[in-house]
Amino acid sequence: MSIFSRAGVLILTFSCLTPLAVADNRQDVGMYFEDANKLYYQDELPEAIIQLKNALQANPQHLPSLLLSGEIYLQQGDPKAAEYALRQALIYGADSSLVVLNLAKSYLQLGNYQRIISDLQVDGLSQPVQVDLLGYRAEAYTLLDQLPDARFSIDLALNKDARALLPRLANVILLIREGALDEALDNAQVVITDWPEDARSWNSHASVMHAQGDLASAIQSYQKALTIQPSHVDARVAKVGALIDLARLDEAADDLAFLKKEYPYEPRAAYFRGLLLSKAGDEEGARLEYVRCTEVIAVLSKDKVASDPQLLMSAALAHYALNQLESARNYLQLYLNKVPSDVGAHKLLADVLLKQGDPENAIKILNTARSLLQSDADLLTMLAAAYSQTGRHARATRLLEEAVSSGGSLFTKTQLAKSLLRSGDVERGMQALEKIHAQEPTQQTGFLLTVSYLKQKAFEKAEGTAHQLVGLDPDNVTYRNLFGIALFSQGKMEVAREQFNLILKQAPSFSAAQINIVKIDIAEQKLSQARTQMELLLVQYPENTSVMLEMSRLELASEKQDEALRWAEKAFALDSRSLEVVLYLTDLYVKLEKLDLAESVARTGVQNHADNLAVLSVLGQIQTLKNQPKAAQVTFKQMVKMAGFDAESLYKIANLQLRINEIADARYSLSKVLQAEPDYFPAEVLEVELSIKLGMLEGAEKSSRKLQKDYPGNPVGFQLLGDVYMARQLYKQADEQYLLGLSIRPASGLISSRYKALQAQNKPAESGRVLEDWLAVHPDDLKIKLAYSEYLIITQDYKQAAILLVQLLNRFPEDPLLLNNMAHVLYKLKRPEALNYAKGAYAKAAHIPQIADTLGWLLVESGNAEGGLKYLREANSRDSNSPEILYHLAVALKAIGRKKEAIIYLERALRAAEIFEERDKAVALKASLLKDKN
Questions:
Q1: Where is the signal peptide (predicted)?
Q2: Which of 404, 432, 449 delimits the end of a domain?
């Protein structure tokens, strides 16, 4: 049974979590699944699928059935069906460790490379799964020509496991793409040394030799891959290509004959057969093979073809050979959508367009290719031909001259210098402005500074410059209004009201001052007074959107949401271009959970204010809330470009990127922050936290020590260095750092970290005293109180744990994790109500694996092994590496006579952890089962 430790985070509501699993009252679901599981282990896959379909018909959310279906579909060569089953499993809360690698395989087979990146996250997975997934991500990034991201994924994977196969294969692919062929070959040779019995190793080695032009050696390595795995289609097709290039046509024909027999619908092989026949002068035979290639591709699903660059290019080449230019054009355009960096494909498409008499589009395509590869005389010649077709002969002549003298760079990019503030270099821009204003204060520089300070929320500085402005021109109501805003923003309500009243004495109809007085009334909860003033303003300014928005704020403060929304929507209908209105209405829609409407308004804002970071930020956050991480990533990247080197904006963007788990993007944003301001403290801290999370501990240690030196009065450097030591399993050194941090400033987080460090050193008594001492001074610290309840459970002081849990449950009676832990404690105390607490926890949070495990185990212990098994299966589906859950599964399986499968789960449990509470029992049970087996 599992207790749930939240490491100091007390979750009080679960409205944002995955919906509870559909209640499964049908005993036949478990029966169908268990039958399928037996058939799977007997390698009877079609029969197993039938039983899994029966189980899923009874309960479409049954996680074990979805996971096993995905595995079998992949083995049967049906990646689309596998993808669907696995994605459903994720939706319903399966442990991502059980899903992501098979999903990655299915996406690779389908050509959905971007989804490997956008859909499959590394965080929270076991290290071996992380490493393999990073290898798949690196391959996907490379295929998408996002080479820096591919390098980052590979380095991260190899930092975790230097010998892992998948990231090393991805590294070879990346090096080939980067043109570093010697280095690629060195790496490929190491791979075949370490993994000589894996066909993928030899295929990787062959690919490097192929890229180097050493076709004979490439063919030898392809053959070694095929000796190990004759069904390796990619190796055989690539080998055929190399044999044709060496004019070893008979050997190529042999492999093509094998492919035709074993894989008659392999379209790449059909294209190569056509090529061979064409070389032999059999144009009719070649035509038939090209037709076969196009017909095979035509009957494949559109999604399959559109997602597979090799199929797209094979179709394009076959149609081109058949002079079917429109089809060739369509496939090439689809191909370039997938592989936009392929210069050869651009040139082939341009040739098709020129043959079709479409020089303008050919020019566009060739100019795109030119941006990818400038020193290409052939490309320039084609571009000159395209310009000639349009009658622009002078331009064509210049291009031809460039092509003739293309020894150096043909095209030099230039950028116009931007102003410091507009480029995002806010610090230097403000310094320059402040220097000018200090030398000779003017209304112009003072106004610019005041507005800039208000934007940066530097309200005290804004007060100073605004006061200067009022002194320079006391009758200027705009300056006095800015002065009042600066005062109001600091909470100086009385003096701010005085300034706004002075304005109204001078200019009674100055609406901004009237609205600001209402803001003060609302802030001081003088709602009746505010409403009287607002009603007058609405009569005076019936179409003023700022007045409407203030009325909306007043209605919100009065808890009248419908009226608040009505006024905001009225303002938007009146002026949808107003940035103030857009930002307010989107925020209100989000608060009211009307996300589709919020996104629609935000998009209107972006359309009208494309260069505004605030409205883009709102759009990205709405996309995040709507679980659209790919769209949000694009929005945030656009923001990074616009932010330039504005450190504060970039730091905020980095945090937004972390919300969608785009760690590489966030690190890039942080690197720009630290380029602009090397001592920007929040970014320094966040960069260290990310480095620890990613396992980049050497850099994290160096940065933590720098923080200790630069900020001696702040404990954060000691907290972070302690976290580095924890990641290295140097628990004593970690504890020393946390103690140093506490000597600077006591903090709950440092106490929680000390507790974990002492627990890791096997010092339970001392770790408990740390919590007890803190609670003696801070008795209401719920974070530490919860940690202490878990400590009592760990130390088996179940009576005291029950007393503390009763106190916590009196405060939070619906909290499922507290209910679960209470069930665990009462079970240990042999109290019959334990099962009721377990059922109560499961009813509120069935998606949490520890809760399903507790309920399942209590049922097994009560003699209902079959009843408990389905909950334990569910728990394992959501947390595949918990040794306790694996052990409980084995006990349940043994109880119903499934001893062979029980042994498998026991082995997994013993591999999962060196130490866990029931390890000795697991060892004994395994020995007993093996003895019975023998």
A1: 1-23
A2: 404
